[in-house]
Every structure is written in structure tokens, then in C-alpha cells.
## 1
Amino acid sequence: MTHYLVFLEVADGGLCMVHVPDLPGCTVRAPTREEALRQLPEAIRRYHDWRCRHGEATFAMEEPIQVEIAEASAGFGPFNPGDAAALFEPDRRAITTEEIEYHLRLMSHSRADLVALARDLPDAILDWQPEAESFSIRRLLRHIGNAEEWYVSRIVSTETLPPEWKDDENMPIMDFLEMERRTALARLRQLTEAERSNVFYPQQWTQHPEEPWTARKVFRRFLEHEREHTDQIRRMLELYHSKQMPQDQEAHLSTEHDDPIEAIRQLYDQQPTHEWERMERHRTEFAVTLRALRDHLPPPPARVLDCGGGPGRYSIELAKRGYDVTLFDLSTECLRLAESKATEANVKLSALEHGTATNLARFADNSFDVVLLMGPLYHLLEERERLQALAEAHRVLKPGGTLFAALITRYAPFRYAAANEPDYLIQHQEEGERILSTGVLPPRKGGGFIAYFAHPAEVGPLVTRSGFEIVTILGVEGLVGRIEDGVNALSGPAWEAWVDLNYRVAADPSIHGGAEHLLVIALKLR
């Protein structure tokens, strides 16, 4: 069990904001106190994932997550611009130099997230408003920077504020954000002992001269405010891409395939042979994955569930090696082809089952030694669906069992486009922006590939959230993704030498962003 003290701000109308001071920047905002507390455990999990993605040391976190309300403040809360925010008891403690540097590091992670979302947006998207009275993304970015200048002014004298802030209203927005954050951090690093320790009641630039401020509250609000608005911008981009798609692209959106699962089933039913042959076109991916299976599988005749295994390339290979393999797939045509290919190879699969990776109810708990999840995760567009598939894999695995899970990386479609459709960025600008910001390639009328492209930094945390312990993560194309044709034409010692090299470097995180597929190998904790 993991225990956190939480602090509440509750507005007169019931709106509630929950803060977790031990996790700087972790908040939940909801219409009621009850709903905010209900959402909090998942927000804490996401916060841990966020820290992990940015390379921070992971905290030991054991389920379930338990929260205890340490303080509740009525009538306070930053629910609208200009509102007074509460000063909680932990905010009153002086902040140390080491704590300042820790907060600044977290602030750099938060700013990196914001900049990655906004830096390449065209003016049309920066200035788009979901509703007539709502903020545009450009206005939100300006608000974030202005708020941070204001936060600093809460605890330092006006004459010591950075001079660059006196005339910054006409700066280009990204230049403004860079200048504001750089100078704010420089000033915060110069805080005196009094500024780090005292409670202040600033009278200038406020509608609430009674509002108390401390350095610790300033650092807390820096992180909370930016992380909240980064999430808001992310949601705005998703809404923009769903509402503003050009008509020539909108015409391709599927009306008959509103269900992505049904669309992907039809895709694979229409071309099962194409999927079988894919491993011949991408020999390196297949060979490196087989090496990983060789090195991390338990000995035969262990029970293997190949969940989403399509026409059974891996199922048949493992059956040849003496494993007890059940092939489970969404596509009945892929299953028929797998049955035929198994007969040709003179091997027997224990079962061929039809269904979806998010529902493995036909299989008992703790019934398989190994689960292969080599396709489903990149066809499940919603995070909750990916987590459900992982939860089902976890359930049917025996304690100590091994998971092999594959995902397609965020930039893989752009590498494909550079090699095969170099005009893609012009012809499909909105789609490209959507993939960059959300990772989602949705269903289209007439069929086609449907995918979620995962950022490499989210892959490990996604799997650990589901109760697995990561063994390794491999970029299975090694060094030759999208430049593999010459290598794939080799045979004999030359081919084996390249397989050796690509498998050897596959676990190097520095190549994962340039890989097409990432393979996670993980264990179900006993």
C-alpha cells in the first residue's frame, strides 16, 4: 500500500482541487470533492509515469494507493484567473537549495512537454478557439508565461525582478516563453534566505492582498499551473484535429467503421497473406524478435498464448520448438491461414481461438507461462484499451510468467512517409499533426491501417502500470529500420553478422526513437 497526504481547495459551488505536495505538480480538479478523490489514484499513477518518462528515479509504489485528507480549505482555489490560492501547512516550510534544484528539474520536464506540443504549430492552430469566448492556444501560452512572472513577484521585491519582463508583450510566443522561463529560473536560484523562508502578503498586481505566499507555494504553483494547461492544450489539439480536418480528408473518415476494432478486423480479413509475408519483407525485425524469444522464453513445453498473432508466424516457430501454443486473433481469415501454414510446417497448434485482446475471459487465471502481445497494443487507440489488454495478459499469465509486447513508435509513420510518400507532410498536414500530438491514426472509409503510435518514453511505464517488471525493451529493427533492403538480401555469415549486431544494440535506448517497433519483455511479479 502507498499512502499520500492530500490537501483540498473547495470553492463555494463545490468545485474541488486536490493537491499532493509530496508529488510536486500532481493535482486533480473535479466538479465535486468526491469525484476529485475518486480520480486521484489514477492521477498519481500517471504522475509516476511522467517522472519515469523524464528519467527521474522511480519511487516504490505498491497498490492500492491510499490517500488521507490532511487539510481542506474552503473558499480558496485557483479555479479562475485572479482567484486566490490556499497556503497549505507544508507550504510554510522554508525551501532548501537542494529542493529548489529538484523543483527546477521537474519544471524543465514540464516545460519540455509544453514546448513539444506547441513549438511547431502553425498560426491557424495557435489562434483557433474551441468556442468564441475561450482561450486560444497562443493565449494560453502567453497566460502561462505571464503567470510565472507573477508568481516570482509574490516573494521578491519589484526592483529585483528581471528587467527583460518590462517590455515582453510583443515578443513571438515561443521566444517569450524561453525568455520568461530562463530569467525566472535565474531569479529563483538567487532567492535569499528570507525569500526562501518567510510568508509574504504582496499588495501589488492582485485582487487579494490578504493572500499569503511562500517560496514553496510559488514552486508548487509553477508546476501545477503549467502541467494543467499543458493537458488543456493537448485536449484542444485533439478537439481541433477531430473538428477541423479538411474536407478531402474528412471524406475518408469511416462512417461504417466507427468501431476501430471492427475496422482492424476487416483490414486483416482482407489481406491475411500480406501479414504472413510481412516478416519476409522485414527479416531483421523477425530475426531479432526470434533471438529475443530464444533468450527469454522458459524451456518447452511451456504454455504460450499468442494473443493477436495474426496468421501465426511466431506461433508456428514456437510450435516447431516444442512449445504448447494457443493462437488467438481477431481475424478469422488469419486464423484459417495459420491453420493451413501449420499443416504445411507439420506442426500442431494446441488451439486457434477467435476474439479480441481486451477480453480473454475464455482463458483461466494463471494459465499460461508466456503471453505474446505482438500486435494488439498498436491497434488499440485508447489508453484504457491498451491497459485492459495488458491487464488481461497479466491475469492469464502464471506468477513469474513472461510477457512479450510490441508497439509501433511515434515517428515510424514519418520514416515510412519519407521513404515512400515524401509529399505526405503537404498532402496530409492535419493527419501528420494529429499523429505527432496524439499518436492516433484513426479508421478511414474504405479501410487502411489503424494505429496508435507510442512515444518510446511511455512504453515502459505503460507496462509497469499493469503490474509487470520490465526485463528489457528492444528496438527490433536495430540500426537498419527503413534502410534494411540491402541487409535483408544477404544470407549466410554476412546475414548472421547483421542479426548479431542488431540484436546486440537493440536494447540501447538511444536508438528507440528511430526504431519502427519496440518489443517489451517483462515478468508478471510473483
## 2
Amino acid sequence: MSKISIIFTQTNGKRYAVFKVNSMFASESFWAGYHDLPRHETRVEMHPGDEEIIIAEVKRKIAEAEAAIAKHEEFIQSPAETHTIEVAGYKVTIHFEPTVGYRWQAQVFIPAPMKAEANLHTMLGEHLDEWREEGDRFSLSTIVKDKEEYFSTVKAEMEKVAEELEALRTWRSQPTQQYELPGNVSVTIAPDDRWSRYEADVVAPKALIEKAKACGLKLGQRTWGSKDNHWAKWWCPLRDEAEAMRVLNELRSEVEEALATAIVAQYSI
């Protein structure tokens, strides 16, 4: 099948050349970076005797396009590349394969435990929920022009992730703090598993909480849940150690107030 056909026509004394370009040849030329072929079904006015000039010009463009296609095919046959980056004990893989238009298909693979531990919302400009789950790992695919530049971007991003992971590990390694308040009230303050903050877990006798509620005391105004038939529980997040100490002191004061309060009379009217 011919790559380009030329039809010479004459209308009202004017002569024209009409070009019919093979669609596959046009597509291959385009992706090879050659954009000087005549457009399909384009009609251009010509002068008598221009036929040989036009034919020669088309032959030249076909030869240039074929050379570009051959060069592009060499690029497509380039070997794939795989790189591995160490990120806080995890192995992140970046895979490159040549694709059309002298571009590269890039895939980044991160282990599922790394995604879970990192607690990040986005990575490489994409929300982590958009990453594709593949068994024990997640992948992100994109098309890039410059694989070296993209690899540098991935590497820089992973260096930040490694720093955040190490910081989170240091945070989570803090010891749990246990406090025993009067009235068999226990308070546990520990670093949050997923955020750089603390959390407080409080367990108190249900009888004490019910008395505080009945007496309108601050202790009873907190949102208590049930641990079992005899114990109530309360939880709250804490920004930092200073807030943890403030809440602990408030709880101590509220518990002491509840213990010092007695119901001396009750009427139902």
C-alpha cells in the first residue's frame, strides 16, 4: 500500500494537487516526531509543469519520515530500566519502559506496609487512594519525557518520606504513661499510632460517673462510654505533652470534686 497518493485535478481552468496520506504512515510519522507530511485530503493549487516538483517533494518527505520512523523504532527497542531506592528499611522500585513519542512509561512500586505506616495522603502528586493495589504493593503509572528527571523527583520525594517515617517511629517509640487518680480512676497517655499527637484513655468506676452526672459535676459532663458492667471509659486526642498534663490535672480536680460530693437528699416531684 502506498504511503502517499497524489491526485492531480483541474477545475474551471485551475489545476490542483490532492494528497491522500496513509493513516498508519501518518500516525507512525507523528509519533516519530516528523510533522512535515501533507495533510490527508489537502488540496493545493498548482501551476502547469509542477507535477514533477510536487512528486519529488513528496518523495523527499516520505524519505525523511521513514528515517524518523526507523530512528523512533530504535528508541522503542531500548531496554527497560529498573531502579531500587531504600526508604527507611523499605524497597521502592521505579521501572521505566520506552513508549511512543520518545517518552517513557514510568511505574513506581511501594510496599503495602510502607503505605500503611507512612500515613501520607499524597505521594508524587497523587492521592494514595488513587494508587493501584497489586497484592502486597501499590503502584503508580505515568508517562514521562525525561526519565532521569522523573527518577530524581521520585528520589527526592522518597527522601522526604523516609524522614517522616523515621520521625513517626521516634514519636511512636515513646513510653506509655500510666497515672492512678483517686477513686480507682486510671489514665493512660500514649503516642497515637498514626498521628504526631497523644491520646488519653481514662477508665473510672461507673458508680462515680453516675454520681457526677446526677450532681451536675464537670466529670459527668464528659462523654463517657461503657467498658463493662462496672467501668466507664473516656478517650480524647491531645496535641502535645502540655495539653496532656492540662487534661490530667483537670481530670484529677474533677475526680476529687466528685469524691468530695455526697447526695444528702433527693426528691421526685
## 3
Amino acid sequence: MLKSRKNKFLTTREGCGSQLEIVLKGAKNNIFSEQKAALTALDRLYEERCVSALIYVMNEFSGSDDPFKQHLAKKAREYLKRDQGQ
């Protein structure tokens, strides 16, 4: 189910799909280096204006029991608010 949802991001903008893959991989792991890579990839999603991918991260991880996933969702939400000028 998740694979079918990820595919639409691979076609939206070059680089967005690969960065989203890194975020999703880091969210699944408790390894510090993977989580650090996920945060860096989330920053790149913002820099590259991958709005669809940021919305996906925010929606997918909001309400999660995992504190790191909650942090990813919160950071994605902050990036989206910056783009809206709020």
C-alpha cells in the first residue's frame, strides 16, 4: 500500500522522490545515522520545494506514537507554514 502512494512523488519533481525515500527509511530505523540522514533529506525537500512530499510526511507521521516520527511531522508542518508566509 505504501509503495503505490510513494510512486506519485517520484514523478512530481526530480530529487523529491529520492529524498522522500531517505526520510521514510530513517523514520523506520532507530539508528542515529539513519535518522540524521532523514532530517537532512527533510531539509532538502523544503529547499527543493517538494510540497507534496512534505504534506505526505506531515500526514503520514502526525499522531504517531514514535517521537522521531512526530518530530518529522512537526518539522514538515513548520516548513509548509514558512512557504505560506505564516
## 4
Amino acid sequence: MPVEEILKWTFQIFNQRRSKSATEPRLVSLDEFEQFATQQARNGNAPVKELLRVLREFLPHLAIPQMKASFLIAVAENDDMREPDVKDVLKAEFAKAKLAAEIEVYPAAHGWCPPDTTVYNKDAAEKAWTRMLALFSKALA
């Protein structure tokens, strides 16, 4: 099955489960989609497992050259431990595309920024929010 068909099918199933109805679109983060697709792969859905492999392997290389923005990528310590090479690949691709990108691993667990989470880290969150506001001020000026 071609990757495009797998992706379309996976998004349809994902949206059906996340929306009140299959016709009600809902914007979701790539993280949410990846969690869903990972669960599908664990349940034995081989095409979705292949899709995740392709996305993880090729997405940064395909998407970054077409982008025209500045970026702040705040990485949680535990996410970096799972895939420590990702930040380096992203840094290299952003540099190759001559795009401004601040990529930093924060000393905090995934989900550290919202104050109502169990892993909230005030110092790391304030730094991340400050960096994001600085990016917005510069990029949207």
C-alpha cells in the first residue's frame, strides 16, 4: 500500500475517533497523531507502523527546505533520550535551508510547560515561553 494511502487512511481513522462525528474536522498536533499511530502499530497495524518509519526517517528532510519561517523547538529531556539524534538532524537541515531555528533540550519532562500538568517545571517553562515570545516579536515585527 503506498504511503499516501496509508497516511490518508490513518488520518481518517484518527479523526473519527477524536471528533464528535467523522465529518467534524479537528486540528491536532503531530505528537497526538504520532501517539495514535504508534498505538495502532502496537495493535498490529503493519501499514501504520511502516508509515511511522517513513515519517520519522524522511519528514525533516522533505519539509524543511519548503518552509519559510523561524522556529523554536523546545525538546524535553526524556524525548531527547529516546531519539538523541533528531535535534542534530533538524539543526543540520535548518542550517542547510538557511532558516533561523533555535533547538534546545530543556531539563524537564515532556509536557513541562502547562502549569496544570504533573511534570510542570516552572523555570524551564518560563524560559521556553520567554524564547517563544521573543521569536514572535522578531518574526512578526
